[in-house]
Amino acid sequence: MGLLDIVPAGVVTGDNVKKLFDYAQEQGFAIPAINCTSTSTINAALEAAKKNQSPIIIQFSNGGAAYVAGKAIDNKNQEASILGAVSGAQYVRSIAKAYGVPVLVHSDHCAKKLLPWFDGMLAADEAYFKAHGEPLFSSHMLDLSEEPVEENIETCLKYLKRMAPMKCLLEMEIGITGGEEDGVDNSDVDNASLYTQPEDIWEIYRRFSEVTPLFSIAAAFGNVHGVYAPGNVKLHPELLGKHQAYVKEQLKGDSDKPVYFVFHGGSGSTEQEIKTALDFGVVKMNVDTDTQWAYWKGLRDFYEKNKDYLQAQVGNPEGPNKPNKKYYDPRVFIRAAEVSMVDRIIEAFDALNNKNVL
Ligand SMILES: [Zn+2]
Asked: What pTM, to 2 d.p., does this model score?
Protein backbone atom coordinates (compact mmCIF):
# COMPACT_ATOMS: atom_id res chain seq x y z
CA MET A 1 0.00 0.00 0.00
CA GLY A 2 1.36 3.38 -0.98
CA LEU A 3 0.61 6.89 0.16
CA LEU A 4 -1.95 7.51 -2.61
CA ASP A 5 -4.06 4.70 -1.14
CA ILE A 6 -4.28 6.82 2.01
CA VAL A 7 -4.51 10.43 0.80
CA PRO A 8 -5.36 11.87 -2.63
CA ALA A 9 -3.12 13.80 -5.02
CA GLY A 10 -3.43 17.58 -4.96
CA VAL A 11 -3.65 19.87 -1.92
CA VAL A 12 -4.50 17.93 1.24
CA THR A 13 -5.90 19.36 4.47
CA GLY A 14 -7.37 18.27 7.80
CA ASP A 15 -7.47 14.56 8.65
CA ASN A 16 -5.48 13.81 5.48
CA VAL A 17 -2.58 15.89 6.81
CA LYS A 18 -2.63 13.77 9.95
CA LYS A 19 -2.76 10.58 7.89
CA LEU A 20 0.18 11.81 5.83
CA PHE A 21 2.26 12.67 8.91
CA ASP A 22 1.39 9.32 10.56
CA TYR A 23 2.39 7.47 7.40
CA ALA A 24 5.67 9.42 7.25
CA GLN A 25 6.48 8.56 10.88
CA GLU A 26 5.61 4.89 10.31
CA GLN A 27 7.74 4.65 7.17
CA GLY A 28 10.54 6.79 8.59
CA PHE A 29 10.55 9.65 6.09
CA ALA A 30 9.97 13.39 6.28
CA ILE A 31 8.49 15.87 3.85
CA PRO A 32 10.60 18.77 2.63
CA ALA A 33 8.97 22.19 2.91
CA ILE A 34 10.23 24.40 0.11
CA ASN A 35 10.09 28.17 0.49
CA CYS A 36 8.60 29.53 -2.73
CA THR A 37 8.48 33.08 -4.00
CA SER A 38 6.98 32.78 -7.50
CA THR A 39 5.13 30.45 -9.84
CA SER A 40 8.56 29.46 -11.17
CA THR A 41 9.81 28.21 -7.79
CA ILE A 42 6.43 26.61 -6.99
CA ASN A 43 6.57 24.72 -10.30
CA ALA A 44 10.13 23.59 -9.60
CA ALA A 45 9.06 22.21 -6.22
CA LEU A 46 6.08 20.38 -7.72
CA GLU A 47 8.21 19.07 -10.58
CA ALA A 48 10.72 17.63 -8.11
CA ALA A 49 7.91 15.94 -6.16
CA LYS A 50 6.44 14.47 -9.35
CA LYS A 51 9.82 13.22 -10.57
CA ASN A 52 10.54 11.69 -7.19
CA GLN A 53 6.99 10.37 -6.59
CA SER A 54 6.89 12.04 -3.19
CA PRO A 55 4.61 14.32 -1.19
CA ILE A 56 5.84 17.90 -0.78
CA ILE A 57 5.12 21.06 1.20
CA ILE A 58 5.00 24.43 -0.54
CA GLN A 59 5.47 27.24 1.95
CA PHE A 60 5.48 31.01 1.89
CA SER A 61 7.46 33.18 4.27
CA ASN A 62 6.14 36.63 5.10
CA GLY A 63 8.61 38.30 2.72
CA GLY A 64 8.30 35.54 0.14
CA ALA A 65 4.54 35.97 0.10
CA ALA A 66 4.88 39.73 -0.43
CA TYR A 67 7.21 38.96 -3.32
CA VAL A 68 4.62 36.64 -4.87
CA ALA A 69 2.17 39.57 -4.93
CA GLY A 70 4.77 41.91 -6.43
CA LYS A 71 7.12 44.58 -5.15
CA ALA A 72 4.88 47.44 -6.25
CA ILE A 73 2.27 46.65 -3.59
CA ASP A 74 2.80 48.49 -0.32
CA ASN A 75 3.11 46.05 2.57
CA LYS A 76 1.74 48.31 5.24
CA ASN A 77 -0.83 46.38 7.30
CA GLN A 78 0.65 43.25 5.69
CA GLU A 79 -1.45 43.76 2.59
CA ALA A 80 1.09 42.39 0.11
CA SER A 81 2.00 39.44 2.34
CA ILE A 82 -1.65 38.47 2.74
CA LEU A 83 -2.44 38.82 -0.96
CA GLY A 84 0.73 37.02 -1.99
CA ALA A 85 0.22 34.06 0.36
CA VAL A 86 -3.43 33.73 -0.62
CA SER A 87 -2.81 33.99 -4.36
CA GLY A 88 0.16 31.59 -4.03
CA ALA A 89 -2.06 29.08 -2.24
CA GLN A 90 -4.77 29.46 -4.88
CA TYR A 91 -2.20 28.94 -7.62
CA VAL A 92 -0.93 25.76 -5.94
CA ARG A 93 -4.51 24.55 -5.57
CA SER A 94 -5.25 25.12 -9.25
CA ILE A 95 -2.33 23.03 -10.53
CA ALA A 96 -1.25 20.58 -7.78
CA LYS A 97 -3.54 17.73 -8.76
CA ALA A 98 -2.10 17.65 -12.28
CA TYR A 99 1.30 16.78 -10.78
CA GLY A 100 -0.22 13.64 -9.23
CA VAL A 101 1.34 14.08 -5.76
CA PRO A 102 -0.05 15.08 -2.35
CA VAL A 103 0.83 18.70 -1.55
CA LEU A 104 0.55 20.71 1.65
CA VAL A 105 0.30 24.50 1.41
CA HIS A 106 1.81 26.19 4.44
CA SER A 107 2.90 29.60 5.70
CA ASP A 108 6.29 29.94 7.42
CA HIS A 109 7.43 31.86 10.56
CA CYS A 110 4.95 34.44 11.84
CA ALA A 111 6.32 36.49 14.73
CA LYS A 112 4.20 38.59 17.10
CA LYS A 113 4.54 41.77 15.07
CA LEU A 114 3.32 39.94 11.95
CA LEU A 115 0.05 38.67 13.45
CA PRO A 116 -2.05 40.83 11.09
CA TRP A 117 -0.60 38.67 8.29
CA PHE A 118 -1.75 35.56 10.14
CA ASP A 119 -5.23 37.03 10.67
CA GLY A 120 -5.49 37.85 6.96
CA MET A 121 -4.58 34.31 5.92
CA LEU A 122 -7.02 32.81 8.43
CA ALA A 123 -9.78 35.03 7.07
CA ALA A 124 -9.06 33.56 3.63
CA ASP A 125 -9.13 30.06 5.13
CA GLU A 126 -12.51 30.77 6.72
CA ALA A 127 -13.97 32.08 3.46
CA TYR A 128 -12.63 29.04 1.60
CA PHE A 129 -13.98 26.74 4.31
CA LYS A 130 -17.42 28.25 3.97
CA ALA A 131 -17.44 27.57 0.23
CA HIS A 132 -15.59 24.23 0.08
CA GLY A 133 -15.66 22.67 3.55
CA GLU A 134 -11.88 22.85 4.02
CA PRO A 135 -9.34 25.63 4.65
CA LEU A 136 -7.39 27.25 1.78
CA PHE A 137 -4.06 26.37 3.45
CA SER A 138 -3.19 22.99 4.95
CA SER A 139 -1.30 24.60 7.81
CA HIS A 140 0.31 27.74 9.20
CA MET A 141 3.24 28.41 11.49
CA LEU A 142 3.17 30.75 14.45
CA ASP A 143 6.59 31.63 15.81
CA LEU A 144 6.35 33.34 19.19
CA SER A 145 9.55 31.72 20.40
CA GLU A 146 11.00 35.12 21.27
CA GLU A 147 8.15 35.82 23.70
CA PRO A 148 7.86 34.33 27.20
CA VAL A 149 6.82 30.66 27.04
CA GLU A 150 3.40 31.21 28.62
CA GLU A 151 2.55 34.00 26.17
CA ASN A 152 3.73 31.80 23.30
CA ILE A 153 1.48 28.92 24.38
CA GLU A 154 -1.52 31.13 25.17
CA THR A 155 -1.38 32.92 21.82
CA CYS A 156 -1.02 29.64 19.94
CA LEU A 157 -3.99 28.20 21.84
CA LYS A 158 -6.10 31.20 20.92
CA TYR A 159 -5.35 30.68 17.22
CA LEU A 160 -5.59 26.90 17.51
CA LYS A 161 -9.18 27.29 18.68
CA ARG A 162 -9.92 29.40 15.62
CA MET A 163 -8.24 26.91 13.27
CA ALA A 164 -9.58 23.67 14.80
CA PRO A 165 -13.13 23.86 13.36
CA MET A 166 -11.62 24.14 9.84
CA LYS A 167 -9.10 21.37 10.60
CA CYS A 168 -6.18 23.60 9.64
CA LEU A 169 -2.94 22.46 11.28
CA LEU A 170 -0.81 24.78 13.43
CA GLU A 171 2.97 24.52 13.58
CA MET A 172 4.42 26.27 16.62
CA GLU A 173 7.99 27.02 17.65
CA ILE A 174 9.42 26.60 21.10
CA GLY A 175 13.01 27.54 21.85
CA ILE A 176 15.00 29.64 19.46
CA THR A 177 16.37 28.64 16.09
CA GLY A 178 19.72 30.37 16.13
CA GLY A 179 21.02 32.56 13.35
CA GLU A 180 24.24 33.98 14.66
CA GLU A 181 26.84 35.52 12.45
CA ASP A 182 29.63 33.37 11.14
CA GLY A 183 32.43 32.99 13.64
CA VAL A 184 30.29 33.11 16.80
CA ASP A 185 30.99 29.95 18.71
CA ASN A 186 27.81 28.43 20.10
CA SER A 187 29.14 24.92 20.46
CA ASP A 188 29.22 25.02 24.26
CA VAL A 189 25.90 26.78 24.75
CA ASP A 190 23.41 24.48 26.36
CA ASN A 191 20.63 26.72 27.52
CA ALA A 192 16.88 26.45 27.54
CA SER A 193 16.40 28.65 24.50
CA LEU A 194 18.65 26.88 22.02
CA TYR A 195 17.64 23.46 23.34
CA THR A 196 13.99 22.92 24.22
CA GLN A 197 13.27 20.97 27.42
CA PRO A 198 10.97 17.89 27.50
CA GLU A 199 8.71 19.53 30.12
CA ASP A 200 7.96 22.35 27.67
CA ILE A 201 7.06 19.87 24.93
CA TRP A 202 4.71 18.01 27.26
CA GLU A 203 3.05 21.25 28.43
CA ILE A 204 2.35 22.17 24.79
CA TYR A 205 1.24 18.68 23.84
CA ARG A 206 -1.12 18.39 26.81
CA ARG A 207 -2.81 21.76 26.31
CA PHE A 208 -3.00 21.68 22.50
CA SER A 209 -4.36 18.10 22.46
CA GLU A 210 -7.38 19.28 24.43
CA VAL A 211 -8.28 21.40 21.38
CA THR A 212 -7.17 19.32 18.37
CA PRO A 213 -4.63 16.71 17.30
CA LEU A 214 -3.67 18.93 14.35
CA PHE A 215 -0.49 20.61 15.54
CA SER A 216 3.24 20.19 15.11
CA ILE A 217 6.19 21.49 17.08
CA ALA A 218 9.40 23.08 15.83
CA ALA A 219 11.56 22.37 18.87
CA ALA A 220 15.00 23.91 19.10
CA PHE A 221 17.85 21.41 19.26
CA GLY A 222 20.67 23.75 18.31
CA ASN A 223 19.27 24.61 14.86
CA VAL A 224 20.47 27.62 12.96
CA HIS A 225 18.99 29.21 9.87
CA GLY A 226 21.24 29.62 6.87
CA VAL A 227 24.59 28.12 6.10
CA TYR A 228 27.49 28.73 8.44
CA ALA A 229 30.97 27.41 8.80
CA PRO A 230 30.73 23.91 10.25
CA GLY A 231 31.34 23.42 13.94
CA ASN A 232 29.86 26.66 15.22
CA VAL A 233 26.65 25.15 16.50
CA LYS A 234 26.09 21.64 17.69
CA LEU A 235 22.88 19.98 16.59
CA HIS A 236 21.38 17.55 19.06
CA PRO A 237 18.52 15.81 17.23
CA GLU A 238 18.67 12.99 19.79
CA LEU A 239 16.94 15.43 22.17
CA LEU A 240 13.78 14.86 20.11
CA GLY A 241 13.91 11.22 21.22
CA LYS A 242 13.94 12.33 24.84
CA HIS A 243 10.92 14.54 24.19
CA GLN A 244 8.98 11.70 22.57
CA ALA A 245 9.83 9.34 25.43
CA TYR A 246 8.79 11.94 28.00
CA VAL A 247 5.44 12.63 26.31
CA LYS A 248 4.81 8.90 25.87
CA GLU A 249 5.46 8.34 29.59
CA GLN A 250 3.08 11.14 30.61
CA LEU A 251 0.40 9.79 28.26
CA LYS A 252 1.03 6.21 29.32
CA GLY A 253 0.41 5.54 25.61
CA ASP A 254 1.72 3.00 23.10
CA SER A 255 2.99 5.36 20.43
CA ASP A 256 6.74 5.93 20.44
CA LYS A 257 6.27 9.12 18.44
CA PRO A 258 3.25 10.97 19.79
CA VAL A 259 4.61 14.35 18.61
CA TYR A 260 4.96 15.65 15.05
CA PHE A 261 8.29 17.46 15.02
CA VAL A 262 9.50 19.99 12.46
CA PHE A 263 13.16 20.54 11.59
CA HIS A 264 14.12 24.18 10.94
CA GLY A 265 17.56 25.37 9.96
CA GLY A 266 18.50 22.07 8.34
CA SER A 267 20.85 23.51 5.70
CA GLY A 268 24.30 22.05 6.11
CA SER A 269 23.32 19.30 8.55
CA THR A 270 24.91 15.89 8.19
CA GLU A 271 23.20 12.75 6.91
CA GLN A 272 23.46 11.22 10.38
CA GLU A 273 21.85 14.24 12.07
CA ILE A 274 18.94 14.08 9.64
CA LYS A 275 18.60 10.34 10.12
CA THR A 276 18.45 10.76 13.90
CA ALA A 277 15.79 13.45 13.49
CA LEU A 278 13.72 11.08 11.30
CA ASP A 279 14.06 8.27 13.84
CA PHE A 280 12.56 10.56 16.47
CA GLY A 281 9.50 11.67 14.58
CA VAL A 282 10.43 14.67 12.43
CA VAL A 283 7.80 14.82 9.68
CA LYS A 284 8.73 18.12 8.01
CA MET A 285 12.05 19.72 7.24
CA ASN A 286 12.37 23.24 5.91
CA VAL A 287 14.60 23.80 2.91
CA ASP A 288 15.27 27.35 1.81
CA THR A 289 18.88 28.50 1.71
CA ASP A 290 20.11 25.53 -0.31
CA THR A 291 17.38 25.82 -2.95
CA GLN A 292 18.02 29.56 -3.25
CA TRP A 293 21.64 28.77 -4.02
CA ALA A 294 20.63 26.05 -6.50
CA TYR A 295 18.29 28.43 -8.35
CA TRP A 296 21.04 31.03 -8.63
CA LYS A 297 23.67 28.46 -9.61
CA GLY A 298 21.47 27.20 -12.44
CA LEU A 299 21.22 30.71 -13.82
CA ARG A 300 24.91 31.44 -13.30
CA ASP A 301 26.00 28.24 -15.06
CA PHE A 302 23.64 28.97 -17.93
CA TYR A 303 25.19 32.41 -18.36
CA GLU A 304 28.75 31.11 -18.13
CA LYS A 305 28.05 28.47 -20.75
CA ASN A 306 26.26 30.79 -23.18
CA LYS A 307 27.99 34.08 -22.46
CA ASP A 308 28.81 34.79 -26.10
CA TYR A 309 25.18 34.47 -27.08
CA LEU A 310 23.93 36.81 -24.39
CA GLN A 311 25.70 40.10 -25.14
CA ALA A 312 23.33 41.47 -27.79
CA GLN A 313 20.00 40.57 -29.33
CA VAL A 314 21.75 39.85 -32.61
CA GLY A 315 25.30 38.63 -33.20
CA ASN A 316 27.24 35.73 -31.71
CA PRO A 317 30.34 33.60 -32.54
CA GLU A 318 28.38 32.01 -35.40
CA GLY A 319 27.96 35.29 -37.22
CA PRO A 320 27.19 39.00 -36.79
CA ASN A 321 23.58 38.56 -37.93
CA LYS A 322 22.74 35.49 -35.92
CA PRO A 323 19.81 36.08 -33.51
CA ASN A 324 20.16 35.19 -29.82
CA LYS A 325 16.49 35.02 -28.94
CA LYS A 326 16.56 31.39 -27.91
CA TYR A 327 19.12 32.28 -25.20
CA TYR A 328 17.51 35.33 -23.64
CA ASP A 329 13.94 34.06 -23.64
CA PRO A 330 13.10 33.77 -19.89
CA ARG A 331 11.65 30.34 -20.61
CA VAL A 332 15.22 29.30 -21.34
CA PHE A 333 17.33 31.04 -18.69
CA ILE A 334 14.79 30.85 -15.87
CA ARG A 335 14.23 27.25 -16.86
CA ALA A 336 17.94 26.61 -16.21
CA ALA A 337 17.44 27.97 -12.68
CA GLU A 338 14.38 25.74 -12.20
CA VAL A 339 16.16 22.59 -13.40
CA SER A 340 18.97 23.21 -10.93
CA MET A 341 16.45 23.80 -8.12
CA VAL A 342 14.60 20.58 -9.02
CA ASP A 343 17.87 18.64 -8.73
CA ARG A 344 18.58 20.15 -5.32
CA ILE A 345 15.09 19.35 -4.02
CA ILE A 346 15.54 15.75 -5.16
CA GLU A 347 18.69 15.63 -3.01
CA ALA A 348 16.57 16.84 -0.09
CA PHE A 349 14.02 14.10 -0.76
CA ASP A 350 16.83 11.53 -0.71
CA ALA A 351 18.23 12.86 2.57
CA LEU A 352 14.75 12.67 4.07
CA ASN A 353 14.26 9.07 2.92
CA ASN A 354 11.28 10.28 0.90
CA LYS A 355 11.46 8.57 -2.49
CA ASN A 356 8.84 6.61 -4.45
CA VAL A 357 6.48 6.58 -1.49
CA LEU A 358 3.31 7.07 -3.54
ZN1 LIG B 1 12.59 28.35 10.24
From this structure: 0.94
